[in-house]
Amino acid sequence: MKVAVGADINAFELKEELKRYLEGEGFEVVDYGIYSKDPVDYPRVAAKVAEGILNKEAERGILFCGTGIGMALAANKVKGIRAAQTHDTYSAERAELSNQAQIITIGSKVVGVELAKKIVSAYLSADFSFEGSGKNSARKVEEIMEMENR
């Protein structure tokens, strides 16, 4: 699976740690920045990752900033994207299983490296389904997409 990542200056180190972790776990990582500790406003990075998902350059995305809030807000402004802020494994898993979130966000000032690895693993191991027990969730995701198109 290809995973897109991106961060702002507050989360550069966490992104780099998680990038190495993901590659070690066999994921192909597409890095949309930042690439050094040069400051770049997070909305630009969030947009790049979201557009990469929509353009099928990656299947899922992970964005990092200080709290995870700004990246989630920015990514959700890109039509067709559902981004969920996550700070624990349960919300990360449910981001995919209940909401088919293409992107999760993690706050580097809220979550440490080891927990971030567990969050990312929970998210990437979950698989949304429009069938079976996922029908209720699928209906809700479709409602969200309809709201977006109004």
UniProtKB/TrEMBL annotation:
NCBIfam families: PRK05571.1 (NF004051), rpiB (TIGR01120), rpiB_lacA_lacB (TIGR00689). Pfam families: LacAB_rpiB (PF02502). InterPro entries: RpiB, RpiB_LacA_LacB, RpiB_LacA_LacB_sf, SPI_LacAB/RpiB. GO terms for biological process: lactose metabolic process. GO terms for molecular function: intramolecular oxidoreductase activity, interconverting aldoses and ketoses. This is Ribose 5-phosphate isomerase B. It comes from the Bacteria. It comes from Enterococcus phoeniculicola ATCC BAA-412. Belongs to the LacAB/RpiB family. SUPFAM superfamilies: Ribose/Galactose isomerase RpiB/AlsB. Keywords: Isomerase, Lactose metabolism. The keyword Isomerase applies.
